[in-house]
Amino acid sequence: MTQPKGDRARMSDFPTSFDRDQLLKCARGELFGPGNAQLPEPPMLMMDRITDISADGGAHGKGHVVAEFDIHPDLWFFSCHFPGNPIMPGCLGLDGLWQLTGFNLGWRGWQGRGYALGVGEVKLTGMVRPDRKMLTYYVDFTKAIHTRRLTMGVADGRVEADGETIYHVKDMKVALSES
């Protein structure tokens, strides 16, 4: 892994867990600096805290992120998806995984704004209804590339609802671009 140069932040400058206030700081562009990895603001921010992050942990030893999202019946998407049959859209769980993949790249000190590039495979095996209490996201990097021309993370992920695995994804791709 190539370390950033000069006054750019290094992963050792950041904690390995983040509370909601710190995630909101990232959403405002205050955590990794202007023009760098940034989370969306609520209501699109799909996690309440990151409980663990690394550049060398996870199933493949190439980095990981674990995060949690508290579920409560008044979340914005339940009233519109679907009236009378409220379910969290599966795409929001996938977006949460992409958000965390990009966050990890910024946490490493790598520069640029994050962009989801795609996903190889998505399997949804359960639903998030208003009676669920918490989602847990797991992102395990299979590749973390940082060169002069390309900064990209490739990762597998899963989402658990109250301990039950409900989403599996393979080969998520997120890049950072300085342009």
TrEMBL record:
Its main location: cytoplasm. InterPro entries: FabA (IPR010083), FabA_FabZ (IPR013114), HotDog_dom_sf (IPR029069). GO terms for molecular function: (3R)-hydroxyacyl-[acyl-carrier-protein] dehydratase activity; isomerase activity. One of its GO terms (biological process) is fatty acid biosynthetic process. Pathway: Lipid metabolism; fatty acid biosynthesis. It is an enzyme of class 4 (lyase). It is found in: Cytoplasm. It comes from the Bacteria. Keywords: Cytoplasm, Fatty acid biosynthesis, Fatty acid metabolism, Isomerase, Lipid biosynthesis, Lipid metabolism, Lyase. It catalyses: a (3R)-hydroxyacyl-[ACP] = a (2E)-enoyl-[ACP] + H2O. Its EC number is 4.2.1.59. Transmembrane segments: none annotated. One of its GO terms (cellular component) is cytoplasm. Homodimer. NCBIfam families: fabA, PRK05174.1. Belongs to the thioester dehydratase family. FabA subfamily. PANTHER family: 3-HYDROXYACYL-[ACYL-CARRIER-PROTEIN] DEHYDRATASE, 3-HYDROXYDECANOYL-[ACYL-CARRIER-PROTEIN] DEHYDRATASE. This is 3-hydroxyacyl-[acyl-carrier-protein] dehydratase FabA. It comes from Rhodovulum bhavnagarense. The lineage of its organism: Bacteria, Pseudomonadati, Pseudomonadota, Alphaproteobacteria, Rhodobacterales.
